[in-house]
Amino acid sequence: MSTPIYVTKPYLPAKEKYTKYIDSIYQNNQLTNNGPLVQQLTKRLQEKLGVKYLLLVSNGTTALQIAYKIKCLENKHVITTPYSFAATSTALDWQQAHIHLANIDNKSWNICPNALNEKIQEVKAEAIIPVNLFGVPCDLEAIDRLAVKYNIPVIYDSAHALLSEYKGKSIFEYGDIHCISFHATKLFHCIEGGAIIFKDKAEYELANNLINFGITSSGQISHAGINGKLSEFHAAMGLCVLDDIDELVQERSSLIQCYKEQLNDLVTYQETKYDHYAQPIYMPVKFDEKGKLDRCEKSLNKHGYFPRRYFLPQHLDFLPGREDSVIQQCKQAVENILCLPLMNGLDQKTIKSITQIIKSS
Question: pTM value?
Fold first, then answer.
């Protein structure tokens, strides 16, 4: 095989469609500052997701930073998961929050509500940052109950979970704020981009000021903001991808089903005790046999396939209070998890080749 296949590949819509949006940018001569394409994408996403207060931003990390700023997490004790992309915690560190880690559930790989409850009492937590990992929602009702019990806010890192559902309902009905990534590797992307979804109108309006240097509609600077706006060119890509999103979801879902039919019970998958829908964004599998993952990965690499071990907790070394026991338990749970190649345009013949290598390794 001449062309290597990696864990994922950005989806590129028809060039002609994108060019039409670019032509409109040249006609309008507005490149940023809440231009017409950003407004159009905002409206379409609000309608698609059934939400009212959605704010487009420059990337998913900016979404987290703004959300943490909105909830005033500086010097506060905040609990999150050890199993996530680095930005979940590094953005907290930028906000100078005191970061604490709660153990993950061994089946869902999301933050464990029981461990979260214990940690809240132990550190007197003032906020919770769960992650809807690989598109699989956390136990949102359980976390909401803890938030009400202890009167603390919940900010979800939903970078992977734009279209995910919990018990037949949108995940955005739970928690206070959701932060989403529209990076090029995501199912829906704007090349670079992100969004913040709020329940509270006042928080939404404040965030709108913060991503524009803190400048209000009257031209005054009300807060110390940053430049977190999405450009028209990025919104143009988002509009193109959004046009195709239903077909992209259908295609990836069929690829996941093909993987599962081929692998059968050779591996285990993310599991929950509650009904959910996980948008088809990654193909994570767990090998229970010791050494199996290493053998599979080496064999796949030799044949030009490059899966990826996502989010081993090594990025947490920067934390001052590392909580090594939690990190070590997370490592033991996830060191045998591998994300197999999943992307639009991948054919089932390739999947069968990948799974055959896994079976014979």
Answer: 0.96
